[in-house]
């Protein structure tokens, strides 16, 4: 699957309607972003079960501010609407594949239980 552009208008729908979404926060003027783009595109072609999105931080400043993006590129991975990975800096293809593998291995039932427990304890 090729990458898709994500905007403030499409963000929530994309996260809610897909199991795993990987987002690359980038900008046109960013050298490392330009170096990472072909790696990201190449890895996206190998994973039809994952949505690979790109958020242009220049045109989507609201999204970048919401996620407190301070440096680019920043990679963020959502699974079942939960952020499991967020890291600035570019990865090589092997590193990105390793992160994807680890995200797929996570027991999401346990993650959702922990989130519910945290929400319960903070509301008491």
Task: Describe the structure concisely.
This protein has a single domain, classed as Glutaredoxin.
Structure characteristics:
five-stranded mixed β-sheet, alpha/beta, globular, 46% helix, 5 helices, single chain, Glutaredoxin, 124 residues
Report on the structure:
The protein is α/β, with parallel strands linked by helices and 124 residues long. The protein has one domain (4-122): 3-Layer(aba) Sandwich (Glutaredoxin). The protein has five helices and five strands; from the N terminus they run βαβαβαββαα. A five-stranded mixed β-sheet has the order 1-3-2-4-5. It is globular and about 45 Å long. The N and C termini lie far apart (44 Å).
SSE blueprint and pairings:
Elements (H helix, E strand, L loop, with lengths): L3 E2 L2 H9 L3 E7 L4 H14 L5 E7 L4 H6 L7 E6 L2 E7 L4 H13 L2 H15 L2
Average pLDDT:
94
Quickly give the structural class.
Answer: alpha/beta
CATH superfamily: Glutaredoxin
Strand order within the widest beta sheet = 1-3-2-4-5
Strand content: 15-25%
SS summary, helix count: 5
Total beta-strand segments:
5
Shape: globular
At CATH level 3, the topology is Glutaredoxin
């Amino acid at each position: 699957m090729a990458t898709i552009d994500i905007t403030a208008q499409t963000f929530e729908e994309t996260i809610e309607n897909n199991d795993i979404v990987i987002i690359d926060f980038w900008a046109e003027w960013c050298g490392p972003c330009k170096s990472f783009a072909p790696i990201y595109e190449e890895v996206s072609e190998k994973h039809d079960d994952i949505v690979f999105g790109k958020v242009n931080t220049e045109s989507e400043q609201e999204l970048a501010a919401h996620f407190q993006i301070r440096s680019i590129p920043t990679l963020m991975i959502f699974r079942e609407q939960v952020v499991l990975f967020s890291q600035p800096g570019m990865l090589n293809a092997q590193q990105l594949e390793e992160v994807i593998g680890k995200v797929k291995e996570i027991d999401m039932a346990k993650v959702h239980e922990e989130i519910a427990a945290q929400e319960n304890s903070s509301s008491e």
